[in-house]
């Protein structure tokens, strides 16, 4: 039996779409007007015009179509260069959104929507222009904004040089080091000159950069369909040779590209197995999740290293996998990992998810992207824990380095330097950066995006974690609080001193210099007059 479709489009486009759909061996019957329907349609297709994209009419019309033809899903076809930003696209109430699709893409989307899935494939256009900043800026604000503009411009230039990464190892290391240096300089500038709200209003240094393409396909709106879509996207992102654009030094960079990819894919596979176990276990999700994390990392490490591989160690052959598991401590927990309960409830039971203060269904595009961000953050941080243990094992087992690490880390000096830098970064992050992030209610999440490991910061309350800090970390937050409390008084004092200096220079010193100059001029005039009289 053919599926009945209701099509709304301009006459020329409507005729072309009708011919395409009717040519599919009787799979679809197309009604161009509601009077031609026999009962309710299985799908509503709306080809939006340029006039429909203006004035916020698009979302209102989609809501009317959904209310009129419920429960039929709505497929929105957008013209090229529609100008809608990523947030606007994600908030449109449509089961399917396509931008000027090819015939095969349209037919594949129809099949997905008719079986209860969701489709989103559109390029995010330019966002609405930001309001002009106030011209009255103080010295601190001007220094902050101008400094951030210069740093962001340099960061964008280096990221363009790293896409794709250069083949020259020295050049790659120099660019990555410069990227970390600029990121640290940006954080220091914000710490000294704050507040952060001034930085948020800074203009985009690269307005002409290409906008990302949103592409999400859910074959089913259940928890299984959501997880399969997220896993496919992360597997595709992990399969490429990842570059580090997070601004942080990662232990994962020490592994060879093949081992790095194998570790990420092994963790994804273990997460899938853990999800199946959570489906069959009625115990609380958070409790089981924390209990099974060490076992999950151990199995991922065992999958990374073949159980049959043996390497020489101090004159004898040892099984690599068993030796690594005996010498590694995988029971630690990353304190920056967010609570897993919301992520697990959506991935296991398809429960709604809180995103930016809104409770969204788990199959909504914004919820799917947020779940992908949470999973990718767990994936990278878990890979970091495993990679740190692998680097420690390689330090005491030289023959293992050629099997796991990059060629430049075969030298003991290079490996120890990397480990020392990672330890120093960990201590700095634990003592300084984490208390500041907790006090400012920020959380840094790692994400896999465009073949790179990047960072994204979220703002969320972290008061409970703030109260659990040690005395040394609380001193950092106390220093920040003192800075915020004293900043207005110090600014007022500096402003008063500046006014005093201006008065002294203009009223006192300037007038004195003027009087002295006038006296000199008068004296010179009298001397000239006497000389003329004598002659």
Count of strand segments:
14
The biggest beta sheet reads: 7 strands, mixed
Termini separation (Å)?
125 Å
Spatial strand arrangement across the major sheet: 2-1-3-4-5-6-7
Radius of gyration over alpha carbons? 31 Å
Low-confidence stretches: 126-137, 195-210
Mean pLDDT: 82
Class by SSE composition: alpha/beta
Helical fraction: 55-70%
Shape type: globular
Count of DSSP H/I helices:
17
* Binned strand content: 5-15%
Task: Supply database-style keywords.
13% strand; 14 strands; alpha/beta; single chain; 17 helices; 535 residues; 3-stranded mixed beta sheet
Structure description:
This protein is α/β, with parallel strands linked by helices. It is built from 17 helices and 14 strands. It has helices spanning 11-22, 57-69, 86-90, 103-114, 139-161, 169-193, 196-200, 223-239, 257-280, 285-304, 320-327, 341-349, 365-396, 401-404, 412-439, 463-467, 471-534, and strands at residues 3-8, 28-31, 43-47, 74-78, 96-99, 118-123, 213-218, 243-244, 310-313, 316-319, 353-355, 358-360, 442-449, 452-459. It has a 7-stranded mixed beta sheet, sandwiched between helices. It is globular and about 125 Å long. The model is unreliable at 126-137 and 195-210 (pLDDT under 50).
């Amino acid at each position: 039996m053919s599926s009945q479709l209701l099509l709304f489009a301009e006459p020329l486009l409507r005729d072309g779409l009708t011919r395409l759909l009717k040519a599919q061996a009787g799979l679809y019957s197309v009604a161009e007007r509601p009077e031609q329907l026999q009962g309710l349609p299985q799908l509503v297709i709306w080809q939006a015009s340029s006039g429909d994209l203006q004035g916020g009419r698009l979302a209102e019309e989609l809501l009317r179509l959904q209310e009129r033809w419920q429960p039929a899903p709505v497929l929105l076809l957008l013209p090229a260069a529609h100008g809608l930003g990523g947030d606007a696209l994600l908030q449109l109430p449509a089961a399917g959104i396509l931008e000027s699709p090819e015939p095969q893409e349209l037919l594949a989307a129809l099949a997905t929507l008719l079986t209860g899935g969701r489709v989103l494939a559109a390029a995010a256009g330019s966002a609405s222009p930001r309001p002009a900043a106030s011209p009255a800026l103080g010295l601190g604000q001007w220094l902050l904004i101008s400094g951030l503009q210069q740093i962001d411009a340099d960061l964008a230039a280096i990221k363009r040089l790293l896409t794709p990464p250069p083949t020259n190892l020295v050049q790659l290391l120099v660019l990555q080091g410069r990227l970390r240096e600029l990121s640290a300089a940006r954080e220091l500038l914000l710490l000294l000159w704050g507040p952060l709200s001034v930085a948020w209003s800074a203009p985009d240094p690269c307005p002409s950069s290409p906008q990302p393409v949103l592409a999400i396909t859910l074959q089913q709106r259940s928890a299984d369909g959501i997880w399969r879509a997220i896993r496919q996207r992360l597997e595709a992102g992990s399969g490429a040779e990842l570059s580090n654009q997070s601004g942080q030094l990662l232990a994962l960079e020490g592994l060879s590209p093949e081992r790095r990819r194998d570790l990420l894919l092994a963790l994804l596979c273990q997460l899938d197995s853990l999800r199946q176990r959570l489906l069959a276990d009625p115990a609380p999700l958070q409790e089981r999740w924390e209990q099974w994390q060490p076992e999950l990392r151990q199995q991922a490490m065992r999958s990374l290293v073949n159980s049959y591989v043996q390497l020489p160690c101090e004159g004898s052959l040892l099984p690599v996998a068993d030796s690594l598991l005996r010498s590694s401590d995988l029971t630690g927990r990353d304190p920056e990992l967010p609570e897993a309960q919301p992520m697990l409830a959506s991935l296991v039971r398809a429960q709604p998810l809180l995103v930016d203060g809104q409770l969204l269904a788990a199959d909504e595009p914004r919820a799917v992207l947020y779940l992908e961000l949470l999973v990718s953050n767990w994936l990278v941080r878990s890979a970091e824990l495993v990679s740190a243990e692998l680097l420690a094992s390689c330090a005491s087992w030289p023959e293992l380095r050629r099997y796991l690490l990059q060629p430049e880390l075969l030298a003991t000096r290079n490996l120890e330097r990397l480990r020392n830098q990672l330890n120093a970064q960990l201590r700095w992050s634990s003592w300084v950066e984490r208390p500041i992030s907790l006090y400012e209610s920020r959380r840094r999440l790692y994400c896999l995006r465009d073949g790179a490991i990047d960072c994204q910061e979220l703002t969320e309350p972290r008061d409970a974690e703030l109260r659990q800090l040690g005395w040394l970390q609380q001193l950092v937050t106390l220093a920040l609080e003192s800075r915020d409390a004293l900043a207005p008084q110090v600014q007022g004092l500096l402003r008063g001193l500046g006014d005093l200096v201006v008065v002294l220079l203009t009223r006192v010193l300037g007038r004195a210099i003027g009087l002295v100059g006038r006296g000199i001029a008068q004296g010179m005039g009298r001397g000239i007059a006497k000389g003329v009289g004598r002659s």
